[in-house]
Structures are given as structure tokens and as C-alpha cells.
Amino acid sequence: MNIRLYTENDVDKMVEIWFEGSKLAHNFIKEDYWKSNQSAMKEKYFPMSQSHVLEVDGIIVGFISMIDDYLAALFVDPNEQGKGYGKILLNYVKDQKACMSLQVYHENESAIRFYQKNGFIISSESIDENTSAKEYVMTWKKE
Predict the structure, then answer these.
(1) Looking at residue 79, what is its pLDDT?
(2) How far apart are CA 79 and CA 123, in angstroms?
(3) Which of 24, 73, 81, 129 has the most crowded Cβ, counting Cβ within 10 A?
(4) Residue pair 100/70 in contact by the 8 Å Cβ criterion
(5) What pLDDT was estimated at residue 70?
(6) Nearest CA to 27 among 108, 137, 82, 86?
């Protein structure tokens, strides 16, 4: 198992994991929304964030993307979920940060539970401008 800074060669696999994970976790949002954002992820969002990939036996199974202290993305390949990879990636970043925030859709209950188990608290609510879906802002502070 290896966590490393992503390279340009990793981006297609990261977009694939993001797309498949987004469809699965956000089935309350039309798939077309996720399809239409694939190129933006590749060309805009990954380049503006600091992303790390988690490899197992040389294969990327997940990634985490940070913009300063904002957790912009944490995705594990749907075929690899339930193996602790999300927690490994999250702890990797927590070791480097004093605090973090993120946004998660209200309807993504499994992600909310995951973040709460990992020390995040709900600090406010908002509406995602792009999807009109309700979301929570969650925060974490190192003890």
C-alpha cells in the first residue's frame, strides 16, 4: 500500500473513480450532472487541488483532494469500498492538518456517518448552488 502525490498519468483513473463513486453515493442527483462535470474535474478541479492517490499492488484504489484546509474530494473505487481505504486517506491528511472542513449532501447518509466516526461535526447547513441539494458543512479540529 502506498500513498503518493498524484501525477498527470493518474488523472483518468481518478476521474473514473470520482464518476463511479459519485453516481453510487449521490443517486438522488441525475447521472447527467456527473457526466457533464468529468472534464471539469480533469482540467480544473484536480489541477487546483493537492491530491494524493492510494495504490494497492500498483493499482489506484482511491484518492483525496485538498484545497488548503478544505477537503474537496475523498473517493474510493466502489469495488474497493469497505476495506478501510477511505479512513487511511483521511488519516494521511489529518496527520498534516490542524483543522479541515468539507461539504456533504444531506442525503449521503453513509458519508455523514463516516465523517462523524472520524471526528467531524456538522457545523452548518447550506444549499449546493449547482444541484440545489441540501448539504452540511462539517468540520474537524486536531485535539
Answers:
(1) 95
(2) 31
(3) 73
(4) yes
(5) 97
(6) 108
**How many residues in the chain?**
143
pTM for the complete prediction?
A: 0.92
List, for residues 74-126, the tens digit of each pLDDT value.
999 999 999 999 999 999 999 999 999 999 999 999 999 999 999 999 999 99
CB 60 within 8 A of CB 72: no
Please give the pLDDT value at position 26: 82
Question: What is the SS3 assignment for 2?
Answer: strand
In Å, what is the CA distance from 10 to each residue of 14, 79, 90, 137? 6, 18, 19, 29
C-alpha cell at 81: 469500498
CB neighbours of residue 51 within 10 Å: 21
In whole angstroms, what is the distance from residue 119 CA to residue 91 CA?
A: 11
